[in-house]
Each structure stands twice: as C-alpha cells, then as structure tokens.
Amino acid sequence: MVDKKTKAWSGCPVRFGMSQFGDKWSFLIIRDLMFKGRKYYHEFIEAGEGISTNVLATRLADLESNGIVNKSRDPIKGSRFIYTLTDKGIELMPMMLAMIDWAEKFDPVTEVPEDFINELRDDPKKLQQEIMEKIPR
C-alpha cells in the first residue's frame, strides 16, 4: 500500500523515515521508551527536556498512527495510558545506537557511560539484544 503523503517523494528512504519519526521530540520519546524505561505521559513531561504537553500529545499520537508506539490503558490505574514501542519501533534500535556512537565521537558534551559505549563498539549485536530484552512489550 502506498501512503499518499510519501507517494510524491519518489521512494526516498530518508524522506520516508523523516515522515515517520523525524523530529527531535519524536526521537527523544523513542529514546525514553527504548533506553530509559519511561512509559507514562507524565514521565515524558518530567524527563527534563522541556517538551510542552501539546507537543508531547501530538508526537505520541503521530508515533502511534505510524505504528511505532502502542498506547494501552494501564491495568492498575485505568485513567492513564502506557506507551510501548511496537516491533516497528524496536527496529529503530540500530539507528538509535548509531546516533549515540556518532554523537559520542563528535559532540564533546555528549555523555555516554564508558561501559555502554565500549560495549556498543565492541559487540553491538550483544548490546542490542540486552537492550531488547529490557524493553516492555
């Protein structure tokens, strides 16, 4: 099925990717779900990035409509929702790890734990598997 929004883009993979998850707030939400164990709306707000509530709500809805994030009712407190990555979202992990590696090399203020970056560079597949086992589904 061809998405009407991307049809005119002549199959450019970068443009398609950007249409699915391509702004800083979406990447930070994916980061929080993938690496930081955040799953509730208030946890994203309190993450310290300064995202506004309306931007967060829009980005979560976009990520959900693009099949990157699932939204489900919390079974304990039914008035709130739990956000988790879908398989499609989890498939972004190699790209996210590559961004971490790249930023650690070229941004002097990027903070990546030494053991994490060493494992990423020594055995990225092993690190990816370890992270995947911790991601709630």
Automatic annotation (TrEMBL):
<dbReference type="InterPro" id="IPR036388">
    <property type="entry name" value="WH-like_DNA-bd_sf"/>
</dbReference>
<dbReference type="Pfam" id="PF01638">
    <property type="entry name" value="HxlR"/>
</dbReference>
<dbReference type="InterPro" id="IPR002577">
    <property type="entry name" value="HTH_HxlR"/>
</dbReference>
<protein>
    <submittedName>
        <fullName>Transcriptional regulator</fullName>
    </submittedName>
</protein>
<keyword id="KW-0238">DNA-binding</keyword>
<dbReference type="InterPro" id="IPR036390">
    <property type="entry name" value="WH_DNA-bd_sf"/>
</dbReference>
<feature type="domain" description="HTH hxlR-type">
    <location>
        <begin position="12"/>
        <end position="111"/>
    </location>
</feature>
<dbReference type="GO" id="GO:0003677">
    <property type="term" value="F:DNA binding"/>
</dbReference>
<keyword id="KW-0804">Transcription</keyword>
<keyword id="KW-0805">Transcription regulation</keyword>
